[in-house]
Design a protein that fits this description.
Helices cover 43% and strands 17% of the residues. It is an alpha+beta fold and 315 residues long. Helix 1 packs antiparallel against helix 2 and helix 7 packs across helix 8.
């Protein structure tokens, strides 16, 4: 079988020429060569070509064209549990740049084996400004300018936080000019994270809790202590009620509202306070510990008072 395309074409051209057949003339005994007077035997040449080339000449070959959208489709990694880990929002004024960058980010997530939602289209925002063409009497001649902001969103599911952070760093380093990006990360902690933070605050050990979480916990603790001191000083003179007293007042207000639904709740609360009586006991708030400066001042005052008592002349 002939494999070369040039050899096949040369053989086809040579076989396609009309054949010379021998004929015998009536006047002479020698045979003479002449062209056949009838039609050319195409079937004979076709069979010969089929036998030599090994293919069917008259068969129409079907050319399989590649799908043009196959290369443009973004591959996706299917999610396993559907737990969202990251949400990235893109916005830009240039549509072609943002579409290219979002598809590139999805392909990067696919090659890093992270389940991705694909590019989610968000509603575009159009803002228009109308200005005058001339500052004088041409009020009816105006120009309208508009700015279109296109938005896209990409979600990442079921991935390691470290891998997600590396993906964010990678797309941030290769960001396209004219495309803004903003992301939100979801962090999941174990159920006993509170006990671990307490243990780390007491011992200072960061094996179970990272240094960033421990620093945030210390800041929250300091802020909470300052808020308690502020609350104790601000609400020092307010009355304090026990839980039983509050339950009695609530039941009284509920009974009055059941009897008269149109009654005023504020007036009923004032009556409930009068009926149950305000507590006359002092506030249970513990005053905050004075600072070292105040303690030193108090100690000096006490020493001066003792000196005055000793310096008094005895009668």
């Amino acid at each position: 079988m002939i494999r070369s395309a040039a050899a096949r074409a040369f053989l086809a051209r040579s076989l396609a020429k009309p054949a010379l057949v021998p004929t015998y003339a009536a006047s002479t005994s020698k045979p003479s060569m002449r062209l056949p007077s009838g039609t050319r035997f195409a079937t004979t040449y076709t069979k010969m070509l089929d036998k030599v080339l090994g293919i069917n000449v008259h068969e129409k070959t079907q050319v399989l064209l590649e799908d043009p959208n196959a290369r443009l489709r973004v591959p996706k990694q299917p999610p396993t549990h559907g737990i969202p880990m990251c949400r990235v929002a893109f916005h830009s004024f240039q549509l072609h740049r943002m579409d290219f960058f979002t598809k590139w980010c999805c392909k990067a997530a696919f090659h890093m084996k992270m389940p991705c939602s694909g590019v989610i289209f968000m509603p575009r925002k159009i803002r228009r400004w109308t200005v005058l063409k001339s500052p004088f009497v041409h009020k009816s001649s105006q120009e309208v300018f508009e700015r279109r902001t296109y938005k896209r969103v990409v979600y990442i599911y079921d991935s390691n936080p470290e891998v997600v952070q590396k993906w964010l760093d990678y797309i941030g380093q290769n960001a396209v000019a004219g495309v803004g990006m903003k992301y939100w990360l979801n962090e999941y902690e174990p159920l006993d994270i509170g006990e671990r933070i307490k243990r780390a605050l007491k011992t200072g050990d960061t094996t179970d809790v990272d240094a960033v979480t421990l620093k945030q916990a210390r800041y929250v603790k300091r802020f909470t202590v300052q808020g308690r001191k502020y609350g104790k000083g601000r609400y020092r003179g307010l009355p304090m009620f026990r839980q039983q007293e509050l339950e009695k007042m609530a039941m009284y207000v509920a009974d009055q509202l059941r009897a008269n639904p149109q009654a005023n709740i504020e007036e009923l609360t004032k009556v409930a306070l009068k009926v149950n009586g305000t507590p006359k006991r002092p506030s249970t708030h513990v005053h905050p510990m004075p600072s070292k400066k105040k303690l030193a001042i108090m100690a000096r005052r006490a020493e001066r008072a003792k000196q005055k008592e000793t310096d008094k002349p005895s009668e």
